[in-house]
Design a protein that fits this description.
By secondary structure, this protein is of the alpha+beta class. 16% of the residues lie in helices and 40% in strands. It contains 3 helices and 17 strands. The protein has a 9-stranded mixed beta sheet, with helices on one face. It has a 4-stranded antiparallel beta sheet with strand order 11-16-13-14. The protein is globular. The chain binds 2-oxoglutaric acid (AKG) and manganese (II) ion. Manganese (II) ion (MN) binds at residues 126, 128, 183.
């Protein structure tokens, strides 16, 4: 097991019915800061979701970049923005981490981003198990900015797990994680700072 600059173990997270790898700190602190400000300039927008006939504003900003395709997520269809250089670099880094830590070769073709403006912004329980993501999808999730709790709960038993996703970290979810677990990003009343999350994914169908 590798230790990072904070002496926190990096590595595989042992959780039944899941395949997870967490790296606490990928870049130097100046590079991490620089990335946060570049990513803050992405094309963030508000989106709405209609549930049981009622339309609600999604409690965070989102963006979607990738190859020529569109993606329906939480009943929202995202228009794809063309890749930008910093995102392509992060995509490559994530693909290398997947290969080194899991021995799997992956080509991410899109990135769904979330900007949590403060602790009031959040994401409810869900699994990234849409058919377009295919069998045992690999999702690489970067965090920049303030640390937020990322909660997981097993779909079929009472197991739970909470990560604090730190500035400049990478969480890779693979294997049966989406089949057996839900995850969420709960509200945190005391958090006043923003967090940027980038999730690199592979969509199977180009539509
Ligand atoms: O913000 C996070 O870390 C979670 C994001 C997430 O679950 C998603 O985009 O599907
Ligand atoms: Mn998710």
């Amino acid at each position: 097991m590798q230790m990072n600059m904070f002496d926190v173990p990096d590595g595989e997270v042992i959780l039944s019915d899941a395949k997870l790898h967490y790296t606490e700190q990928l870049f130097s602190s100046s590079k991490t800061e620089q990335l946060f400000s570049v990513l803050h300039g992405l094309n963030w927008h508000e989106a709405y979701i209609t549930l049981y006939g009622e339309t609600h504003k999604i409690p965070r900003l989102q963006c979607f970049y990738g190859d020529e395709l569109s993606y329906v997520y939480s009943n929202t269809r995202f228009k794809t923005e063309k890749w930008q250089a910093p995102l392509l670099q992060l995509k490559k880094t994530a693909e290398q981490y997947v290969s080194e830590t899991m021995g799997e070769s992956v080509n991410f073709n899109c990135m769904l981003g979330n900007l949590y403006r403060n602790g009031q912004d959040c994401m409810g329980w869900h699994a990234d198990d849409e058919p377009e993501l295919g069998f045992e999808p690999i999702i690489a999730s970067y965090s920049f900015g303030i640390s937020r709790d990322f909660k997981m709960k097993h779909k079929y038993n009472s197991l739970t797990h909470t990560f604090s996703l730190n500035n400049g970290s990478l969480l890779i979810m693979a294997g049966k994680t989406q089949e057996f677990w839900y995850h969420s990003l709960p509200k945190r009343a005391r958090v006043t700072q923003p967090r940027i999350n980038l999730t690199f994914r592979t969509l199977l169908k180009h539509r």
